[in-house]
Amino acid sequence: MPACGDRTLMQPLLQVRDLVVEFPTRRGTLRALDRVSFDIAPGEVLGVVGESGAGKSMTGAAIIGLLEPPGRVAGGSITLRGERIDNLPPREMRKVRGKRIGAIFQDPLTTLNPLYTVGHQLVETMRTHLAIDAAEARRRAVGWLEMVGIPAASERIDAYPHQFSGGMRQRVVIALALCAEPEMVVADEPTTALDVSIQAQVIALLKRLTREKGTSVMLITHDMGVIAETADRVAVMYAGRVAEIGPVRSVVKAAAHPYSAGLMASIPPLSHKVDQLPQIDGAMPRLNAIPQGCAYNPRCPHVFDRCKVERPELLQAPETRAACWLFDSDAPRERAHV
Amino acid sequence: MNAVSRFLDSDLFYSFRRTPSAVISAVVAAVIILGAAAAPWVAPYNPFDLASLDLMDAFNPPAFMDEGSLAHPFGTDDQGRDVLSAILYGARVSLVVGVSATAFALTVGVLVGLLAGYAGGTVDAVLMRIADIQLTFPSILIALLIDGVARAALPREVHDQLAIVVVIVAIGISDWPRFARTVRGSALVERNKEYVLAARVIGISPARIMLTHVLPNVLGPLLVLATLNLGLAILSEATLSFLGVGVPPTQPSLGTLIRIGNDFLFSGEWWIALFPGLALVAMVLSVNLLGDWLRDALNPRLR
Amino acid sequence: MSEPPIFEARGLSRHFDVSKPALQRLLSREGRRTLRAVNEVSFAIPRGTTMSLVGESGCGKSTVARLAVGLYEPSGGQALFEGQDLAEARKSAAQRRRMGMIFQDPYASLNPRWRVADIVGEPIRAYGIAEGAGALREKVGALLRQVGLSPADGNRFPHEFSGGQRQRISIARALSSNPDFLVCDEPTSALDVSVQAQILNLMKGLQRDLGLTYLFISHNLAVVRQVSDRVGVMYLGSIMELAPAETLFTTPRQPYTRALTEAIPDLDMVGKDRQPVGGEVPSPIAPPPGCPFNPRCPLANDRCRSERPALIPARGTPETLVACHAVEEGRDSFEARAAA
C-alpha cells in the first residue's frame, strides 16, 4: 500500500506495516497498537499526535526497539531502507539505534549518563558508530555543542549533565542524537518538560539541524501547535490505531476523520476568545475495552450502523487518508458529508 | 462482590499464586503457627507437666533411628521431655514474643514517624537523631542492657513473671527506629501530595490528616517491614534465650531449647538441639520469604 | 466601592529558606540562601470574575495560589478575603468553607485509598453541611451529577476513573462546601486537549450558575485567554503586566509578555519559522538586579539593570498596569506599532 499521494515516487526511509504490539496481562492480552501503518520519507518530519494512551510513544518505542517488557511486537513489520528491523537480535538493534536511528526523549536525564561529562558521551557515541579517532571526535563534539547553541562550547564540553539547565540539557541530547549522523530521529515529547520560551528555542533548533542534515524525524507530541510548526505530515492516533494521516496543513485546517476534526477544534485558540470551546464528550477507551468496529464510534457525532460492526481501514479522503467509513467510496453512504 | 471474592480476584493474590516461594512459605508458616497455637491440643505430651516426665525416657533418639520409638518422633531430652512437644510449645513462646515485640516497635515507630514526618523542623530533627543514636547500638546490646536493668531493679520472683514482657519490650525498643524511619519517609512524601493539601484547605486538623489520609497510604511499606521484622524479632528472642537472658527456663522458647541441646551436641544427642534449630530456621525463613514477596508485590515499579 | 473584592493581595511576598543544613553551611562558609518565590505582588479579584496568573515554571504563580487559600503564610504584605485578613478569616469555619482549591494533578489530588463519595463528602462532613448519612449521600450524588458523573460513581475508587473524570471529582469536592472563591492551580495542564475543553466548559458553566470567583493559575496563554477577565503575567516572583484579558492579548506591553505570546506554537503557524526569545529564566535564588527580565530583554538599558520598575499604568493603554522602564519612557515604540 503506497503512502500519501505526493511521496509515492520516493522510496520511503522507514516503512511501518500493520504493526501490532501486545501486552500479555493476567486478564488477557492487551493490544496496545493495532495494525499501525505509515511511511516516513527521507528528510521528512512526520508528526504523531494523539491523547495519552493513544499509542504514539509505543509506536516510537517499537521502532527503536525499546518496548518495555512484557510488551512485544506481535505482528506486522518495520523496515528501514527495505531492511527489517523489528526482528533483529538485541545486539544488532543496538547498532541500528544510535547509528541509524537517534532518539530524543522528554526527560533529557534518561538519555544522559550523570557520571560522565557531556563531551565524553558525545565522543563515545561518535567513536562507536563512526570510524574516527579520539582527537577528531572531540573536535566534532565541540562543533556539535556549538551547533546546538551551547555557549562557550570548548569549555562546557567537560561539564557534567547536572551542570546544565533543562533547556541546555535537551540541546545536548539533540547533539547526542544527531552526532552519529543517523538517517532518522525519533523525538518523543522533546519539549513537553520545557517552558514555553525554551520550548520554542528547542523546536527551532531541531527543525534547523534536521533540515540541514537531511535527517528524517518522527516527532511524537500531544502539542498540536508544535506539530503545526514543525511537521510535513501528521499521523493522528486513537486507541492504538492511526485514525488519519496526511499533510500537516490538511490535517490541521481540514481534518477528515471526525476525531481529528474534534481534536483540532478543542484546542483553545490564542487569537480570540470563544464562548464555548468545542469539546469531545467521553474519553478514549481503555485498552481492555476498545469497542467493536471503529474505536471512536461511541463518541462520534457521525456514527452509523456499519461503524459499530466493521473496523475501517485508512481510506482516501479529500486531502488525507482517514480510517472512517464516511470515506468509503464503494459502499453507499448513509450520511452525505461531514 | 464481597471482600473474600474481591481478595481472591486481586492483583496481590494473583501475584501470590504465581510465586512458588511465597506459596510454600505461607504453607510452612501456617503449619508452624497453627501447630504452635494449638500446642496444648496437638502436642503428644505436655513438656511442662513435671508429673508426666520420666527420667527413664531421657535421651531417646528420634523415631527413625534404631533405638528410637514412634512415641517420641523427634526423641527426648535429658529430662525425658518429648522434643516434638517442646518444639510446639517453644514455637508458641517464640511467636508470642516475636509478634508482640513487632507490634510494640510498630506502634512506637508509627507514632514517632508520623509526628516527625508531619511536624518537620526541630521536632523531626530531634526525633530522628534519637532514632539514629538508637540504630548505632546493636539491637542485641540494647536487649541485654534492658534485661540487665530489669534483673537488677526487680525482685527475682517478679522478674521471672515479667521476663517475657521484659524481652518483648527489649526487642521492641531496639526495633522501633526502623518503623519510624519508614513512616517518616513516606509521610514526608505523602504530606506534600495534593490530596493532603486539599484536606488542609478544608481545615482538617493535622492529627486527623495523619491518621485518615497519610497512614492508610503508608500501610504497604509498613506491612512489608513488619513481616520482615517479625523474622528478626523471633531470631533476637532466640539469641537472647540462647544466651540465657531471655525467657525463663520454665517457659522454654526455641532459643532455650537450642541452648539446652547445645550441652549435648557433642556427646551424641544431637537431636535435642537440631530439631528446635530446624524449626526456628523454617519459621524465620518462611516469614522472611513472605516479606520479600510482599515487598516485590507491593512495589509498583516491579509490577 | 460598596463591596470589597473577594480576594485581594497587597504587596504579598513569600520567601523560602533554601539554605543547606547548618553544619554544611558552616563547613562550606556559605550564608543563608533565600528564594524569593513571590515578591510584593498586588492585585484584587472582584466577585464573580476570573483573574488569571500566567508565567513559566518558577515564576511564583503556584505560590500565590497557595498563599490565596492560606496553605502558606505570607512573608510580607497581606492577603485579604473580603477585606478581612486571610489568616483571620480562615479561623472561622463559616468563612473557610467559602474558599476552595482545585489542583493540577488529577492522580495526586485524590486519596487513592478513599472512595469517591468519601472524598467528595469530606468537606461536607468537616463543615457539618448535611445532617445525617442520607442527606450526605444525596448531596454527594447531586454534586457528582453537577460535574457530569453519576451518583453511582461514588462507590468507586479514584483509580477506576480517567484523568478528566478525576478532575471532575476534584471539582465536585471543591464545590461541596458551597464556596464563593475557588483557586484553580493549573487545573487542565495534566489533561489531554479534548478533555481540557470539557473541564474548561464545565468550570465556565459553574461560574455562570453559581456566581463563582476564580483565581486561575496556568502556564498556557491560550487557555488563559479563554477563561479570564483579568490577567497577570508573572516572572521571577513579580507581576510584570496586569491588564484586562482582551487588552493584554491584543496589546501586550511588557517585552516579556510580548515574547511569551510570540513563543506559543500556533495552529495558524503551519510550516513557519520564528525567532524565539533567547536566554533562560534566571534562578530565583539569585535574581538579576533591577528589572528581573533585563538579561533577556531587547530594550534593557542601564536603568533596567539597576532599578526595579514599579507596576504603573502604561502610557497609551492606561487600563494596563505594567512594570517596565521602557514603556514608561516610551522606548518601546508603542505609538509607532499602534500606528502601523
TrEMBL record, chain B:
Gene3D superfamilies associated with the record: MetI-like
Domain ABC transmembrane type-1: 91-291
TM segment ranges: 21-43, 93-119, 214-235, 270-294
UniProt xrefs under InterPro entries: BP-dependent_transpt_permease (IPR050366), MetI-like (IPR000515), MetI-like_sf (IPR035906), OppC_N (IPR025966)
Keywords: Cell membrane, Membrane, Transmembrane, Transmembrane helix, Transport
UniProt record, GO biological process: transmembrane transport
Cellular compartments per GO CC: plasma membrane
Entries under Pfam families matching the protein: BPD_transp_1 (PF00528), OppC_N (PF12911)
Record bears the keyword Transmembrane helix: yes
CDD domains: TM_PBP2
Record's subcellular location: Cell membrane
Transmembrane found in the keyword field: yes
Main location: membrane
Membrane topology (UniProt): Multi-pass membrane protein
PANTHER family hit by this protein: ABC TRANSPORTER PERMEASE PROTEIN, OLIGOPEPTIDE TRANSPORT SYSTEM PERMEASE PROTEIN APPC
Family of the protein in this entry: Belongs to the binding-protein-dependent transport system permease family.
Identification of the protein by name: Peptide/nickel transport system permease protein
Organism of this sequence: Muricoccus pecuniae
TrEMBL record, chain C:
Main location: membrane
InterPro entries, per the entry: AAA+_ATPase, ABC_transp_ATP-bind, ABC_transporter-like_ATP-bd, ABC_transporter-like_CS, Oligopep_ABC_C, P-loop_NTPase
GO BP, sorted A to Z: peptide transport; transmembrane transport
ATP-binding in keyword set: yes
Segments crossing the lipid bilayer: none
UniProt entry keywords in alphabetical sequence: ATP-binding, Nucleotide-binding, Transport
Superkingdom of the organism of origin: Bacteria
Membrane topology value: Peripheral membrane protein
Keyword ATP-binding: yes
Alphabetized SUPFAM superfamilies for the sequence: P-loop containing nucleoside triphosphate hydrolases (SSF52540)
One MF term in the entry's GO annotations: ATP binding
Protein family according to the UniProt entry: Belongs to the ABC transporter superfamily.
The protein's name in its UniProt record: Peptide/nickel transport system ATP-binding protein
Organism whose genome encodes this protein: Muricoccus pecuniae
Lineage, broadest ranks: Bacteria, Pseudomonadati, Pseudomonadota, Alphaproteobacteria, Acetobacterales
